[in-house]
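Incident log, support desk, overnight shift.

02:14 A customer reports that sequence design results differ from what the structure should imply. Their input is reproduced verbatim below. On-call engineer (initials T.W.) acknowledged and began investigating.
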């Protein structure tokens, strides 16, 4: 949003929607209660197609927080340790819905994929260099480079979700304490379309 065209806080109604039957019983699974107009919520342009996006919220009933880099970094060791780790936070809430996407959104998604490719390929360079040196002739330096390369790859995989959490997140949103609505910062053109759509 630009300062000349500020966004508008818009509360969208939600309803329960079970899309993962294997989820923990405490987990809230939600979706939009009504379809959205074919206008991009972020940019206000005509939507080219609706795209399924997920908004994730952590916390406890009445105090939900959207996912952050710190939370994503915690999820990796927690998943690895499994039952040995007890999460002190109460249920995770997920809003899964089809959101209108414009050409700018699609271009941003393409740019993110390219950045991910560059990020992970770059992490492989030391490993490939060490492997090449090992094939030419084993040496202490080649072993060190290979070990460092493996460590860098593992670090890149672990930190990747946190590094790209901002670009991976579809939009900033706030979940109501009773999980009845999700408030998003909407483009004024979307807000106008939503108002007319709701009245209709």
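02:41 Re-run completed on a clean worker. Output:
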């Amino acid at each position: 949003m630009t300062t000349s065209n500020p966004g508008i806080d818009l509360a969208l109604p939600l309803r329960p929607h079970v899309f993962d039957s294997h989820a923990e019983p405490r987990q809230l699974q939600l979706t939009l209660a009504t379809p959205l107009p074919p206008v991009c919520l972020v940019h206000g342009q005509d939507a080219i197609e609706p795209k399924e996006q997920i908004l994730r919220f952590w916390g406890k009933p009445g105090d939900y927080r959207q996912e952050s880099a710190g939370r994503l970094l915690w999820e990796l060791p927690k998943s690895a340790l499994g039952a040995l780790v007890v999460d002190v936070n109460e249920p995770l809430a997920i809003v899964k819905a089809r959101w209108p996407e414009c050409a700018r959104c699609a271009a941003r998604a393409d740019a993110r994929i390219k950045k991910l490719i560059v990020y992970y390929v770059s992490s492989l360079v030391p490993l490939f260099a060490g492997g090449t040196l090992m094939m030419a002739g084993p040496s202490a330096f080649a072993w060190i480079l290979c070990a460092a390369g493996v460590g860098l790859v593992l670090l890149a995989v672990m930190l990747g979700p946190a590094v790209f959490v901002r670009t991976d997140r579809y939009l900033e949103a706030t979940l109501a304490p009773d999980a009845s609505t999700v408030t998003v910062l909407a483009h004024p053109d979307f807000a106008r379309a939503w108002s007319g759509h709701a009245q209709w």
